[in-house]
Protein backbone atom coordinates (compact mmCIF):
# COMPACT_ATOMS: atom_id res chain seq x y z
CA UNK A 1 0.00 0.00 0.00
CA UNK A 2 0.97 3.67 -0.06
CA UNK A 3 2.50 3.60 3.42
CA UNK A 4 4.70 0.61 2.57
CA UNK A 5 5.85 2.20 -0.68
CA UNK A 6 6.93 5.42 0.96
CA UNK A 7 8.66 3.63 3.83
CA UNK A 8 10.52 1.07 1.75
CA UNK A 9 11.75 3.41 -0.98
CA UNK A 10 13.62 6.65 -1.14
CA UNK A 11 11.06 9.46 -1.26
CA UNK A 12 12.78 10.77 -4.40
CA UNK A 13 11.76 7.55 -6.14
CA UNK A 14 8.13 8.53 -5.65
CA UNK A 15 6.85 10.21 -8.83
CA UNK A 16 4.07 12.78 -8.56
CA UNK A 17 2.40 15.17 -10.96
CA UNK A 18 0.70 18.44 -10.00
CA UNK A 19 -2.09 19.25 -12.45
CA UNK A 20 -2.07 23.07 -12.05
CA UNK A 21 0.23 25.73 -10.63
CA UNK A 22 0.33 25.74 -6.82
CA UNK A 23 1.92 28.29 -4.47
CA UNK A 24 5.66 28.40 -5.15
CA UNK A 25 6.62 27.45 -1.59
CA UNK A 26 4.51 24.29 -1.89
CA UNK A 27 5.90 23.41 -5.30
CA UNK A 28 9.46 23.88 -3.99
CA UNK A 29 8.75 21.57 -1.05
CA UNK A 30 7.31 18.93 -3.39
CA UNK A 31 10.36 19.14 -5.66
CA UNK A 32 12.71 18.80 -2.69
CA UNK A 33 10.87 15.73 -1.41
CA UNK A 34 9.66 13.79 -4.46
CA UNK A 35 10.33 13.42 -8.16
CA UNK A 36 7.85 16.10 -9.12
CA UNK A 37 6.41 17.16 -12.46
CA UNK A 38 4.76 20.58 -12.47
CA UNK A 39 2.30 22.08 -14.93
CA UNK A 40 4.40 25.09 -15.90
CA UNK A 41 1.81 26.34 -18.43
CA UNK A 42 -1.02 26.09 -15.87
CA UNK A 43 -3.39 24.80 -18.54
CA UNK A 44 -6.09 22.21 -17.69
CA UNK A 45 -5.28 18.62 -18.62
CA UNK A 46 -7.54 16.68 -20.97
CA UNK A 47 -8.98 13.31 -20.01
CA UNK A 48 -6.38 11.58 -22.19
CA UNK A 49 -3.60 13.48 -20.42
CA UNK A 50 -5.04 12.57 -17.02
CA UNK A 51 -5.09 8.91 -18.06
CA UNK A 52 -1.45 9.19 -19.12
CA UNK A 53 -0.64 10.58 -15.68
CA UNK A 54 -2.51 7.73 -14.01
CA UNK A 55 -0.37 5.25 -15.96
CA UNK A 56 3.04 6.85 -15.37
CA UNK A 57 3.07 8.32 -11.87
CA UNK A 58 2.69 7.12 -8.28
CA UNK A 59 0.48 10.04 -7.26
CA UNK A 60 -1.53 12.82 -8.86
CA UNK A 61 -2.31 16.11 -7.13
CA UNK A 62 -5.37 17.58 -8.89
CA UNK A 63 -7.55 20.58 -8.20
CA UNK A 64 -11.33 20.69 -7.89
CA UNK A 65 -11.64 21.46 -11.61
CA UNK A 66 -9.86 18.27 -12.73
CA UNK A 67 -12.39 15.55 -13.49
CA UNK A 68 -10.89 12.36 -12.10
CA UNK A 69 -13.80 10.23 -13.25
CA UNK A 70 -14.31 6.47 -13.45
CA UNK A 71 -12.80 6.26 -16.92
CA UNK A 72 -9.61 7.93 -15.73
CA UNK A 73 -9.36 5.83 -12.57
CA UNK A 74 -10.17 2.53 -14.31
CA UNK A 75 -7.60 3.01 -17.07
CA UNK A 76 -5.38 0.07 -17.97
CA UNK A 77 -1.87 -0.23 -16.50
CA UNK A 78 -2.67 2.30 -13.80
CA UNK A 79 0.19 3.06 -11.40
CA UNK A 80 -1.29 5.93 -9.34
CA UNK A 81 -2.18 4.86 -5.80
CA UNK A 82 -2.70 8.28 -4.24
CA UNK A 83 -4.84 11.29 -5.23
CA UNK A 84 -4.19 14.42 -3.16
CA UNK A 85 -6.89 16.96 -4.02
CA UNK A 86 -6.17 20.69 -3.71
CA UNK A 87 -9.40 21.91 -2.13
CA UNK A 88 -12.04 21.10 0.42
CA UNK A 89 -14.55 19.70 -2.07
CA UNK A 90 -13.86 16.41 -3.81
CA UNK A 91 -16.87 15.87 -6.05
CA UNK A 92 -14.48 16.11 -9.01
CA UNK A 93 -13.22 12.63 -8.06
CA UNK A 94 -15.20 9.42 -8.44
CA UNK A 95 -14.76 8.28 -4.85
CA UNK A 96 -16.46 4.91 -5.41
CA UNK A 97 -14.13 4.09 -8.30
CA UNK A 98 -11.15 5.09 -6.17
CA UNK A 99 -12.29 2.80 -3.34
CA UNK A 100 -12.80 -0.08 -5.75
CA UNK A 101 -9.21 0.35 -6.95
CA UNK A 102 -7.69 0.84 -3.46
CA UNK A 103 -6.61 4.39 -4.27
CA UNK A 104 -6.16 6.76 -1.33
CA UNK A 105 -7.92 10.12 -1.77
CA UNK A 106 -7.26 13.14 0.45
CA UNK A 107 -8.54 16.72 0.55
CA UNK A 108 -7.73 19.84 2.59
CA UNK A 109 -10.68 20.28 4.98
CA UNK A 110 -11.41 23.28 7.21
CA UNK A 111 -8.93 25.61 5.51
CA UNK A 112 -11.38 27.81 3.59
CA UNK A 113 -14.20 28.33 6.09
CA UNK A 114 -13.79 32.05 6.71
CA UNK A 115 -12.47 32.71 3.21
CA UNK A 116 -15.60 31.28 1.60
CA UNK A 117 -17.87 32.97 4.14
CA UNK A 118 -16.13 36.27 3.35
CA UNK A 119 -16.80 35.73 -0.37
CA UNK A 120 -20.46 34.97 0.36
CA UNK A 121 -20.67 38.24 2.30
CA UNK A 122 -18.90 40.02 -0.57
CA UNK A 123 -21.42 38.68 -3.07
CA UNK A 124 -24.37 39.53 -0.84
CA UNK A 125 -23.18 43.10 -0.31
CA UNK A 126 -22.21 43.44 -3.96
CA UNK A 127 -25.55 42.33 -5.35
CA UNK A 128 -27.52 44.35 -2.77
CA UNK A 129 -25.60 47.56 -3.41
CA UNK A 130 -25.16 46.86 -7.17
CA UNK A 131 -21.41 47.30 -6.84
CA UNK A 132 -20.37 45.47 -10.02
CA UNK A 133 -23.01 47.26 -12.08
CA UNK A 134 -21.79 50.60 -10.76
CA UNK A 135 -18.17 49.79 -11.56
CA UNK A 136 -19.03 48.76 -15.13
CA UNK A 137 -21.12 51.92 -15.43
CA UNK A 138 -18.12 54.08 -14.52
CA UNK A 139 -15.66 52.09 -16.66
CA UNK A 140 -17.93 52.53 -19.69
CA UNK A 141 -17.82 56.30 -18.99
CA UNK A 142 -21.59 56.44 -18.56
CA UNK A 143 -21.46 58.16 -15.15
CA UNK A 144 -23.04 61.62 -15.41
CA UNK A 145 -23.24 62.46 -11.73
CA UNK A 146 -25.30 61.47 -8.73
CA UNK A 147 -29.09 61.55 -8.76
CA UNK A 148 -31.46 60.14 -6.13
CA UNK A 149 -33.04 57.27 -8.06
CA UNK A 150 -30.07 56.13 -10.16
CA UNK A 151 -29.03 52.47 -9.63
CA UNK A 152 -30.78 52.22 -6.31
CA UNK A 153 -29.80 49.15 -4.34
CA UNK A 154 -30.98 47.79 -1.02
CA UNK A 155 -29.44 47.48 2.41
CA UNK A 156 -28.73 44.18 4.11
CA UNK A 157 -28.82 45.49 7.69
CA UNK A 158 -31.84 44.09 9.50
CA UNK A 159 -32.88 41.86 6.58
CA UNK A 160 -33.45 38.10 6.73
CA UNK A 161 -30.69 35.77 5.58
CA UNK A 162 -31.68 32.20 4.77
CA UNK A 163 -28.93 29.57 4.69
CA UNK A 164 -29.43 26.25 2.92
CA UNK A 165 -26.97 23.98 4.68
CA UNK A 166 -25.61 24.93 8.10
CA UNK A 167 -22.08 23.59 8.19
CA UNK A 168 -18.91 25.47 9.09
CA UNK A 169 -19.06 28.00 6.25
CA UNK A 170 -22.74 28.79 6.72
CA UNK A 171 -22.21 29.27 10.45
CA UNK A 172 -19.28 31.60 9.77
CA UNK A 173 -21.42 33.65 7.39
CA UNK A 174 -24.29 33.68 9.88
CA UNK A 175 -21.95 34.98 12.56
CA UNK A 176 -20.72 37.82 10.33
CA UNK A 177 -24.25 38.68 9.15
CA UNK A 178 -25.88 38.59 12.60
CA UNK A 179 -23.19 40.38 14.59
CA UNK A 180 -22.06 42.71 11.81
CA UNK A 181 -25.34 43.60 10.12
CA UNK A 182 -28.01 42.61 12.64
CA UNK A 183 -29.57 40.23 10.12
CA UNK A 184 -32.17 37.68 11.15
CA UNK A 185 -30.77 34.21 10.45
CA UNK A 186 -32.86 31.31 9.14
CA UNK A 187 -31.47 27.97 8.02
CA UNK A 188 -32.51 24.62 6.64
CA UNK A 189 -30.32 21.61 7.36
CA UNK A 190 -31.80 18.21 8.24
CA UNK A 191 -28.66 17.31 10.20
CA UNK A 192 -28.28 20.46 12.34
CA UNK A 193 -30.51 21.74 15.13
CA UNK A 194 -30.69 25.30 16.48
CA UNK A 195 -29.78 24.23 20.01
CA UNK A 196 -26.46 22.83 18.74
CA UNK A 197 -25.28 26.21 17.41
CA UNK A 198 -23.15 27.77 20.14
CA UNK A 199 -23.46 31.56 20.52
CA UNK A 200 -25.38 31.87 17.26
CA UNK A 201 -28.95 33.07 17.14
CA UNK A 202 -30.49 31.20 14.21
CA UNK A 203 -33.89 29.65 13.58
CA UNK A 204 -34.37 26.33 11.83
CA UNK A 205 -36.95 26.06 9.04
CA UNK A 206 -38.99 22.91 8.47
CA UNK A 207 -38.38 22.90 4.73
CA UNK A 208 -36.45 24.58 1.94
CA UNK A 209 -39.73 26.06 0.73
CA UNK A 210 -40.35 27.75 4.07
CA UNK A 211 -36.85 29.24 4.05
CA UNK A 212 -37.19 30.49 0.47
CA UNK A 213 -40.50 32.21 1.16
CA UNK A 214 -39.23 34.05 4.26
CA UNK A 215 -35.73 35.15 3.22
CA UNK A 216 -34.56 38.42 1.71
CA UNK A 217 -31.24 36.78 0.84
CA UNK A 218 -30.75 33.05 0.25
CA UNK A 219 -27.22 31.68 0.48
CA UNK A 220 -26.34 28.12 -0.58
CA UNK A 221 -23.90 26.13 1.55
CA UNK A 222 -24.89 22.50 0.95
CA UNK A 223 -22.65 19.91 -0.71
CA UNK A 224 -23.32 18.67 -4.22
CA UNK A 225 -25.10 15.32 -3.81
CA UNK A 226 -27.86 13.43 -5.58
CA UNK A 227 -30.29 15.06 -3.14
CA UNK A 228 -29.09 18.63 -3.66
CA UNK A 229 -28.23 18.75 -7.37
CA UNK A 230 -30.86 20.89 -9.07
CA UNK A 231 -32.33 21.89 -5.70
CA UNK A 232 -32.76 25.47 -6.90
CA UNK A 233 -34.92 25.20 -9.99
CA UNK A 234 -37.76 27.13 -11.60
CA UNK A 235 -40.35 25.97 -9.06
CA UNK A 236 -38.17 26.74 -6.06
CA UNK A 237 -37.21 30.14 -7.47
CA UNK A 238 -40.93 30.96 -7.75
CA UNK A 239 -41.21 30.48 -3.97
CA UNK A 240 -38.70 33.25 -3.26
CA UNK A 241 -39.76 36.84 -2.67
CA UNK A 242 -39.71 38.94 -5.84
CA UNK A 243 -37.19 41.20 -4.10
CA UNK A 244 -34.97 38.36 -2.85
CA UNK A 245 -31.39 37.62 -3.91
CA UNK A 246 -29.66 34.25 -4.40
CA UNK A 247 -26.01 33.74 -3.38
CA UNK A 248 -24.15 30.56 -4.31
CA UNK A 249 -20.68 29.81 -2.96
CA UNK A 250 -21.40 26.07 -3.01
CA UNK A 251 -21.34 23.96 -6.18
CA UNK A 252 -22.80 25.22 -9.46
CA UNK A 253 -24.95 22.15 -10.10
CA UNK A 254 -27.13 22.92 -7.07
CA UNK A 255 -28.78 25.57 -9.27
CA UNK A 256 -30.39 24.67 -12.59
CA UNK A 257 -28.84 27.44 -14.66
CA UNK A 258 -31.40 27.31 -17.48
CA UNK A 259 -34.21 27.61 -14.92
CA UNK A 260 -32.46 30.61 -13.37
CA UNK A 261 -32.28 32.32 -16.77
CA UNK A 262 -35.94 31.50 -17.44
CA UNK A 263 -36.97 32.85 -14.05
CA UNK A 264 -35.12 36.10 -14.75
CA UNK A 265 -36.79 36.43 -18.14
CA UNK A 266 -40.20 35.70 -16.63
CA UNK A 267 -39.52 38.18 -13.81
CA UNK A 268 -40.26 35.46 -11.24
Task: Write the SSE topology.
Layout lengths: L1 H7 L6 E4 L5 H10 L1 E3 L9 H10 L2 E3 L8 H4 L8 E3 L10 H6 L3 E3 L6 H17 L1 H9 L20 E5 L3 H14 L2 E5 L14 E2 L3 H7 L2 E4 L13 H5 L6 E4 L8 H9 L3
Parallel strand pairs: 1-2, 1-3, 3-4, 4-5, 6-7, 6-9, 7-8, 9-10
Helix pairs in contact: 6-8
How can the largest sheet be summarized?
5 strands, parallel
Approximate strand percentage: 5-15%
User: pLDDT below 50 for ≥5 consecutive residues: which ranges?
Assistant: 1-8
Termini separation (Å)?
Answer: 55 Å
Radius of gyration: 23 Å
- Shape descriptor: globular
In spatial order, strands of the major sheet run 2-1-3-4-5
Report the count of strand segments: 10
Helix content: 25-40%
Mean pLDDT: 93
The SSE string, one letter per element, is HEHEHEHEHEHHEHEEHEHEH
Summarize the structure in short:
The chain has 268 residues and is an alpha/beta fold. It is built from eleven helices and ten strands.
Amino acid sequence: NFGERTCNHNMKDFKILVTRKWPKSVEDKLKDTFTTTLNENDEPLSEDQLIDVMQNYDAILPTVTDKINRSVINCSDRSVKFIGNFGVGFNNIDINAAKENNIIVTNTPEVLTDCTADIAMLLMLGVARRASEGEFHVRKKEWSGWRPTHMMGTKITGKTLGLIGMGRIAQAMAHKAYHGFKMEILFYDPYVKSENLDNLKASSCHSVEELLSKSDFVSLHCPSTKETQGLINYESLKKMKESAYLINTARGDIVVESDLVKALKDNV
